[in-house]
Specification:
2 domains; globular; 68% helix; mainly alpha
Amino acid sequence: MTTSTEVLATLASLEDEKIRAVNARHGDDHAVNLTKLRAVAKDLKKNDELASELWDSGDTAARLVAILIMRPKAWSEAQLDEMLRDSRVPKVHGWLVSYIVKKSPHAEALRRSWMDDPDPVVASAGWALTSERVNRNPEGLDLPGLLDVIEAEMSDAPERLQWAMNETLSYIGIENPDLRKRAIDIGERLGVLRDYPTSPGCTSPFAPTWITEMVARKSAD
């Protein structure tokens, strides 16, 4: 059985300082090509005990591998909350929410507890889970109420929280024709991510543009 020490050594051998420099621009601090990192995780297969050891190492690359070998249902609400609060690196935070928490039976409880957390990084995870609900299972959500909060708070929110709130705003507009005009109006008025650099062929994250383009694509299908 592969040990956490062996995995850490493998990851260290894969480090590339050019990759570290690129990642640093986005707030990440690891130097391992993600394709190679995923290959390491694939060889390990699902292993929650090993994942726990890798997580506890505090090493970013090791934590990314840990997330890839975790079974979402194996982790308690308290464990996931603790890990999320310890996830300050953007890539680790994003993968933990997307790959584990969203698939966990505790996702809704955590969404509710994180939404109003005073830590904006934690709150951003709650909003990311809310975006998922709006997109896939909106029953029971107070969508107009969410728009009220977004309208009042998004423009002054820290970057990661602002991004997650903007995503929720966009999904509300995309998925709800009756709220679409209001969502677009909020996006236009606040101007959040209006000037975000977007590669050719990609959709701008600016909510009015995102909403309009995605609605047009759905209509064309």
